[in-house]
Amino acid sequence: MKELHAHLNGSISSDTMKRLMAQKPDLQIPNGMTMIEKGKKRRLEECFQMFQIIHQITSRTEDILMVTKDVVREFAADGVKYLELRSTPRDENATGMTKRSYLEAVLEGIRQCNEEELDIEVRFLVSVDRRAGSTVAKQTVKLAEDFQLSTDGVVVGVDLSGNPTAGHGRDFLEALTEARRAGLRLSLHLSEIPNREEETKLLLDLPPDRIGHGTFLHSSRELVELVKQNRTPLELCLTSNLKGQTTPSSDQHHFGFWYRMDHPVVICTDDKGVFATDLSQEYQLAADTFQLSKEQVWNLSYEAIDHIFASSRTKTALKERWQALKPSML
Ligand code: 5GP
């Protein structure tokens, strides 16, 4: 499997969370504030409050290093062979963590996992948080460019995420255009909530290389046409949308709309910690809900390779591996 949409701080498992909390007894975090259990739901706004709580728990560079290594190992244990992780660089005055030292910690975690020779390739996208505004967005892209040059192909792109009710897409056009110019690939969260046509149209004009969620794109014929014309792949996260209540039920998930249209879609987890899932479960849920055959599931996973941000050499190697695995998977 390939995981292309995973936010680091949303992907922390309950085991790792327990270890982090044990190191910070002064933080009084009530139960259920870092994970939404099976069968439970929250409003989208509450999900974003959960991220703020998690950020209090991962406030030091050593936390970020540990979390990165654990998350990569867990994806590898789930059978993910190629992972694009994303995260928002963060300053924490109380601990002295800076956006730069934050990114260094993530990239060190990825490097250490490489040394462990896990069966997984990892790339990284630097996240621009909508809540932080346009000036921070430009600083973040500048940092992404610095690390793109110094990490030999690990930093491959930029993500636009954060609370979709905060700010407006136009605030980020300049920063995202600069990222593109520098050769960074763009994955943008678009139309996660209703009535964002104007903003989405503006951002689709960049154009993005992939779209995160796109939950309400199909309520506008014009947006659907634009996305179809560019064949922009959609990163779809079923459990996340169900638990965050932007989708009423799995059979009404927009996976069905785009899949039936033969539009490129990639199944992802979003925040495997917060939403208590993993990529195998997400494939299973899509297969059960939309009655996909084993062959169709294999094809979904195979076609995801076309949409990764790594080099064509990596794509070719993954495709060969997938072809070799095919007989055992069907
Ligand atoms: P981090 O970037 O701190 O590693 O991961 C958590 C952050 O990812 C959140 O604070 C938020 O900015 C972003 N994020 C996680 N899940 C979602 C989502 O479903 N939608 C959006 N727009 N942003 C998300």
Automatic annotation (TrEMBL):
GO terms for molecular function: adenosine deaminase activity; metal ion binding. Signal peptide: none annotated. GO terms for biological process: adenosine catabolic process; inosine biosynthetic process; nucleotide metabolic process. Its cofactor is Zn(2+). It catalyses: N(6)-methyl-AMP + H2O + H(+) = IMP + methylamine. Keywords: Hydrolase, Metal-binding, Nucleotide metabolism, Zinc. Residues 3-321 form the Adenosine deaminase domain. PANTHER family: ADENOSINE DEAMINASE (PTHR11409), ADENOSINE DEAMINASE-LIKE PROTEIN (PTHR11409:SF42). Belongs to the metallo-dependent hydrolases superfamily. Adenosine and AMP deaminases family. This is N6-Methyl-AMP deaminase isoform X2. It comes from Pogona vitticeps.
